[in-house]
User: Fold this.
Amino acid sequence: AQSVAQPEDQVNVAEGNPLTVKCTYSVSGNPYLFWYVQYPNRGLQFLLKYITGDNLVKGSYGFEAEFNKSQTSFHLKKPSALVSDSALYFCAVREKDDKIIFGKGTRLHILP
Amino acid sequence: SAVISQKPSRDICQRGTSLTIQCQVDSQVTMMFWYRQQPGQSLTLIATANQGSEATYESGFVIDKFPISRPNLTFSTLTVSNMSPEDSSIYLCTGGGDAYNEQFFGPGTRLTVL
Assistant:
């Protein structure tokens, strides 16, 4: 079965600094990888996906993620963090039967 | 992208009762999925619902507790039966079927069981 791991429960970053939220994956075959964000008391929002092609994927709100096959990673990044980026971030992988399996989530705190 | 809506958006229920959650997608989808998100936790897949067949349940979830209907390609219901406080969660549905598309989630149903 496919799986993703998010090694950090929480990440703290100062506003204006670059941020990285880590994700590693374990899949058989080509991975379909996703990042979702959940703001307090709101639904789950899609940020970006990697299916194939360029290893650097750009998504919503200035986020991007780098697919690294040799390190089996798909880290989420943003060059300059905003306080409004504070939220819960989920890495996810799609299985062959289209089920989405989520990581445990990483809470991102952007400090003013 | 697909738009997902759920009813009710939230409810407070008594122990031992049942609640049926409705999920509507604005386009036809082959499969619909039901997830549970317990407070402060990640999303856990409950079951996959295909039209015209019984839902497929993940380990730890059973049909008697979480019966699901899928009468057409845009609609599904999940019933949480004989509720206990441990069932207090956000329940989310989504649709899929195209291996190249992401799944979009609705705002979910926030259930509190007293």
User: Anything to note?
Assistant: The beta strands of chain B are 4-7, 10-13, 19-25, 31-37, 43-50, 56-57, 68-72, 75-80, 89-96, 109-113.
